[in-house]
Amino acid sequence: MRARVRERVPVVVQTRGVRSTPARVLWVGAEAVVTCGVVLMLLVVHQLWWTNQQARADAGAQVRVLEREFRSGGEGEFPAAVEPESGTAPSPSSPSNPSPSADPTASSRASGSAGRPATPAYAIIRIPRIGLTAPIARGVGKRSVLDRGYVGQYPNTAAPGRTGNFALAGHRNTHGEPFRYINRLGKGDRIQVQTRDATYEYVVDRVLAQTSPRDTGVIQPVPRSLVKPSYGYSQPDAYLTLTTCTPEFSSAYRLVVWAKRV
Question: Which of 104, 205, 220, 230 is the most exposed place for a label (fewest CB within 10 A)?
Fold first, then answer.
């Protein structure tokens, strides 16, 4: 008898779609990196674009409200004194005992636990040189004033147009960034501050390009830098001080612009 020859059928193992352990780890890691990148991109878009849109809309609406009030003779006058908000840091503008640790442009905590408390603006600042029109509110609280695109007045500084130092702070980047381009201001540039009772005009006189955040001297009634004493004044006058962070997208230093009332 002839021996039967058994034919072996080759077995083919399908391996498509099956990855080795190192390959799967790399794939998961790549997905995680892409996801993080997308999240970070969305955060950047929100911070640099969306906060500006919201704050500018809020500030623009407040400017229109003030303009209507001024025309009709409604509220909006400046009170006898500007008091700090509840929960704010100590005022850096006390002439008798300036706090060496106070940041003259630091954002203070706003009162209230939910939402942004209303902080009515009382004046409008206009700087034609940089195309700025913005409302001025009392205090420098971050949530209640600065993050809304407003310019904030330091507590206990002079009223607009009065002898002393009318000192203001504003964001340079994000949240409306009203002071984004005050570094472009130079001697002779005009600044207008409109209240219900009058419009005051100031002329830029000096610029301090960089100083410490703790340089409280720049917002004193007679402003003079404590860090760079050659910058500032020695005689009383009606001063306007603009302060913001520098360099851009950093809070390491402060940029200061001084103007005098015409």
Answer: 230
89 — pLDDT class (breaks 50, 70, 90): very low
pTM passes above 0.85: no
Q: What CATH code is carried by the domain that includes residue 220? A: 2.40.260.10
**Residues assigned a catalytic role:** 171, 245, 254
Answer yes or no: is 129 within a domain. Answer: yes
Give the mean pLDDT of the chain: 80
Q: Domain for residue 33, yes or no?
A: no
How far is C-alpha 23 from the chain's CA centre? 46
Structural domain of residue 190, as residue ranges?
A: 39-110+118-261
Residue 3 lies in a domain: no
Per-residue pLDDT reduced to its tens digit, 154-183: 999 999 999 999 999 999 999 999 999 999
When mean pLDDT is compared across 91-95, 159-163, 205-209, the lowest value belongs to: 91-95
In a domain, 136, yes or no: yes
